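#random but structural
TW: two for the price of one
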Amino acid sequence: MAVSGDRAVGPSDWAIERFERHAGAVAAAIPVQLAKAHAKAHAAHLAAGLKKRSPYGVTLAGVVHENLAEMARELAEPVRDVRGYEYAVINDHALFPFRYADKPQPLERARLPANVSPTRRRLFRAHGPQSPEGLFEVDGELVTEEYLGLHEAFEELGASTRLVSVFFTADAENGIHVIY
């Protein structure tokens, strides 16, 4: 449960619809888990002693997954392994953490970069929001196995599992800026 001023603010209707009885716990835990992940990633960045930010970004990505998975375990909810990354699954909704910028940016700027891993791209396409109908049907003779594989659900998550993107911005010096 979040606090605004002197009054407690419960989870949104959107969160309750997805996470049901765990909505308050999930809404309260995500900022805490991201802050803890930043602290570890910042320490790794300092320990590496490099000017480049790669130790921070790589560590942050891994620790965010681990922290959200630990949160799911504390709620007695499943954690699923997809190609070496653990995903917290709360009420059939897998949390998909994604740092989309290293400075504060509006959510409208969030994009999967062109060089995102094929696993993350496929995961988002298979379990993410459904895209609107295409402009035309693709003839079955023209469809490749690779195209069909993009839309195939990861069995590790379960075909009915939907993704809930946890978009955020962060950098090594200033920590977490914004979470959506």
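TW: number two ↓
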Amino acid sequence: MSRNLTIPPTVPPSGPGRADAVAVVAFGANLGDREETIRSAAERIARLPLVSDVRLSRMFETVALTLDGPDPDAPGYVNAVALVTTRLAPGILLGMLHAIEAENGRERHERWGDRTLDLDLIAYGEERSDDPHVLVPHPRAAERLFVLEPWLDLDPDAELPGHGRVADLAAALRAQGE
């Protein structure tokens, strides 16, 4: 009598996973208790799986920026930046940032409108992506002092991939009166 033996497939060993990367996350809020919202959002990011460290900059008060330019009559913003050490993929991290915005009452009705919390993924290590769902580095980060100055507060030697030193970018914007 012959028997058919089924040999189980060789299971490859599990890989080491994604290495730690430092993601740069920008925070902004101009409604509600802005500073408390930013602090609690940073604490929430620190509790995400595969996040091992979150360093939050000082808070910076800025004038609201609308599609028509700066609006000193609109509620002012508080901005900050966090350096987030994580093994989450950029797209997963961005999705979790959007979920944290929603937890804080963020509604997306108007582009550049008032908001309880805005979280932007500015950079993710040296990675670059032109995927419309996960653009890294952020396409307008080099043009925004409200991102660059808090980032410099944490890392004076920071570089924005593809754009150069953050200190040089900020100095150029200041010279233009941005």
